[in-house]
Design goal:
This protein has helices spanning 22-30, 44-53, 57-60, 76-82, 136-140, 148-166, 190-196, 213-221, 229-260, 291-294, 321-329, 343-347, 408-419, 424-448; strands at 2-3, 32-34, 37-38, 86-91, 106-109, 143-146, 173-178, 187-188, 268-272, 295-296, 298-301, 310-312, 316-317, 358-364, 366-373, 376-381, 384-390, 465-466. The chain has 472 residues and is α/β, with parallel strands linked by helices. It has a single domain, classed as 3-Layer(aba) Sandwich (Alkaline Phosphatase, subunit A). The strands form five sheets. Strands 1-9-11-2-12 form a five-stranded mixed sheet. It has a four-stranded antiparallel sheet with strand order 14-15-16-17. The chain has a three-stranded mixed sheet with strand order 10-3-13. Strand 16 (376-381) and strand 17 (384-390) form a beta hairpin. The longest helix is centred in the middle third of the chain and has 32 residues, at 229-260.
């Protein structure tokens, strides 16, 4: 199961005493918990396309939500299909462009997001434009109610459960179930909102890092200054409610597998494409390399091979999914990987490597990239000073050592290591060229495909509403 924008710390198994996530907790107790899993990019499309291809955005050439993964770039679903698997996509994967498969042999439920270049967000009707971003408007328009996100996810899970009940082919299946939640809009049903509103904690690091130009600009562009505490609490409470809904959806899938008699001989993986800041450092949603945004939940349950209750602390990446699944199934190898086969880590046959480097990339105005090695996390910005955090001494990332003279040698060594994979100037040029193309194509599509929903789920904007909330 592949959710969208799930902060890994909003789970019971990671120690959150407020979040009610019994099915995720069960997955953790009965399988392996990858405690320090990073996404390859802190925005939807680049993260997902990199995960499928096993390559960083610098190789997929998908830098933001407007670019398409080339149809001639092989993905691990391609490889699994060639190995005899029925590769099936149910729900969200946020493919952009006419190719809505990229190795999945069939799709049994459409995406909620528009499929053409220029259609990058679902439509929730008048008054809801902007609620899918991490802006002040999204935070102000948070609370109890209903949105197309909730209806979409219900429909996706219902279709996936029906697939599991009816599947009778001889071929083994690889099923991806994609939800839009807990991605904003920050809206959940009343009973969940009322439960979480008085219980959620407020951000541990509520103040923005205005000393760094990139985070300061993000804070300004999202108009987060002077956000009332009650608005932050509403958004966080609604998000917690949405996570509980996602947990319930996972439970339905586990029950459907159990009804088939296949729960214990099926590898079940739960993860997300990136996290959500939830007000930490004054920021909501993603696009930044702080831990709440760059890390994702990652659970693997397979009693036949994965010991129950296994906790893996070393950093890993969603890029590891491609080589791991290909190695496990004996599928044809992809031409190249930026990830590693971690099956031995899952089974306990391979030791952990605390110093294993993990890289992620993103553009937010300028290109920037993260390198995690051991206790250190470096964030390099094209044209701006880097950030450096000691995650052992400073897990909340409150003390930026990016310009500390005492850490010059370490910082330069990490920058040199990152430069072997990431070239900020080259990526800036590539992004500029790509932007010229996607801008023109997007304008064309808004004319030519204005009335063509393609494979996008339309939803019903009349069912989107926000109830009045009396802030405590």
């Amino acid at each position: 199961m592949h959710s969208d924008q799930h902060n890994p710390f909003v789970t019971g198994y990671m120690g959150d005493a407020v979040a009610r996530t019994p099915h995720l907790d069960r997955m953790s107790a009965e399988g392996a918990t990858l405690e320090t899993c990073y996404c390859p990019s802190t925005v939807c499309v680049p993260s997902r396309m990199s995960t499928l291809a096993g390559l960083l955005p610098s190789e997929t050439r998908v830098y933001g939500n407007a670019e398409c993964l080339p149809s001639d770039m092989a993905t691990f679903p391609h490889a699994l299909a060639l190995a005899g698997y029925d590769t099936v996509l149910c729900g969200r994967m946020h493919f952009v462009g006419p190719d809505q498969r990229h190795g999945y042999r069939r799709r049994i439920f459409p995406d909620i997001t528009g499929t053409q270049v220029g259609y990058n967000a679902p439509s929730f009707g008048p008054g809801w434009l902007g609620t899918t971003g991490g802006t002040r408007f999204a935070v102000d328009r948070a609370g109890a109610g209903h949105t197309s996100v909730l209806g979409y996810d219900d429909a996706v899970i219902e279709r996936a459960c029906r697939f599991l009940a009816d599947y009778d082919a001889d071929a083994p299946f690889f099923l991806t179930v994609g939800t839009y939640g807990p991605h904003c809009p920050y809206v959940c049903p009343r009973e969940l909102f009322d439960y979480y509103y008085p219980r959620v904690t407020m951000p541990a690091v509520p103040d923005p890092d205005l000393e760094h130009p990139i985070t300061a600009r993000m804070y300004e562009e999202r108009k987060m200054a002077d956000t009332p505490p009650e608005a932050i609490r509403r958004a966080r409470a609604a998000y917690y409610g949405m996570v509980e809904l996602i947990d319930g959806h996972l439970g339905r899938l586990l029950d459907a597998l159990a009804a088939r008699g296949q729960l214990d001989d099926t590898l079940v993986i739960y993860t997300s494409d990136h996290g959500d800041m939830l007000g930490e450092h004054g920021i909501f949603a993603k696009h930044i390399m702080y831990e709440e945004s760059a890390r994702v939940p990652a659970l693997a349950r397979w009693p036949a091979a994965v010991p129950a209750g296994r906790r893996i602390a070393q950093p890993i990446s969603l890029l590891d999914l491609a080589p791991t699944l290909i190695g496990l199934t004996g599928a044809p190898a992809l031409p190249a990987y930026h990830g590693e086969d971690i099956l031995g880590l899952l089974t306990g046959d391979a030791p952990e490597n605390p110093e294993r480097p993990v890289i992620a990339m993103i553009r937010m105005g300028v290109p920037f990239a993260m390198l995690r090695r051991g206790r250190w996390k470096l964030i390099a910005y094209h044209g701006h000073p880097p950030q450096l955090f000691d995650l052992t001494a400073d897990p909340r990332e409150e003390h930026d050592l990016g310009r500390d003279p005492a850490h010059t040698e370490l910082r330069e060594a990490l920058l040199a290591e990152l430069s072997e994979t990431w070239d900020g100037e080259a990526m800036a040029r590539a992004i500029a060229r790509s932007g010229q193309h996607t801008s023109l194509v997007g304008k064309f599509n808004r004319i030519d495909f204005a009335d063509d929903p393609a494979e996008a789920w339309p939803g019903d904007p009349t069912l989107n509403y926000l109830e009045e909330t009396a802030d405590a």
